[in-house]
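Hey,

The postdoc asked me to send both predictions to you directly instead of through the lab channel. I've kept everything plain text so nothing gets mangled by the mail client. Protein one:
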Amino acid sequence: MAKHKRSDSLTILQRAIGTRIAWARELVIPNQSECARLLGVDASTLNKIERGDRAPSVFLIAALSNRLRVSTDFLLKGVLNGRTDEELALRLAALHPELVLQRQDMAPDRDKSTTSDIPDQPTRPDEDLH
């Protein structure tokens, strides 16, 4: 049990997140118990989260986002945007070269057979490069 009462704004946010989880789950996996099983949580836990009585962990938010095919922005903030912001993705890649920037993930409507998806062909040593 918590020692201090949660602020009203956090309670409202927790309930809103639970509501958005329920909305997405009802469209993708109508059976709450089945969804909980697929996520590896108890059905009562998912029920409490959807009612706003319990906060989901960051790991559960990630799993829900993946399983329900919605963005974490939708679950956490109510922003219905399934794409990664391209400018932000480019800035992250510049700051963290270990990240792999995948163009097809950033723009799912594009034709996936664009030339940017085709790896460079190795040059034969006997080819004239001039």
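Protein two:
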Amino acid sequence: MLPPASAFLPEITFQTSRSSGPGGQNVNKVESRVELRWHLQDSQVLTEAQKGLILEKVANQLTAEGLLLITAQDDRSQLRNKEIALARFHELLLKSLRRPKPRKATKPSKGAVRKRLESKKKDGEKKANRRRVE
């Protein structure tokens, strides 16, 4: 079970910068882009097993130092972008810790096999009837 996003707040650092894209004068003046930084291995909230699972799933998203970076520049407000980044972070952790349901091998029913073979035979006869008669 994953703790709420607020439990990770002491471990998370935020860095702000000027956002790119449209926005007029607001873009040039306000640092509304938010970058969430979290060090996976230093986390006190997660167990070692949980860290291992997350590391498997997000290994390609970590920096060389082991930091997970999530950026948000969707909104004009810095506070709203922080909320968006935290929501993305929590969703990423939830998705990483979710174990896939194991697949159970199944066989087609006898009726389905018979139906398929009859259909193949019918199609083969149809194509055989298209040939020239000698």
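Summary for protein two, as requested: The chain has four helices and three strands.

Thanks,
C.
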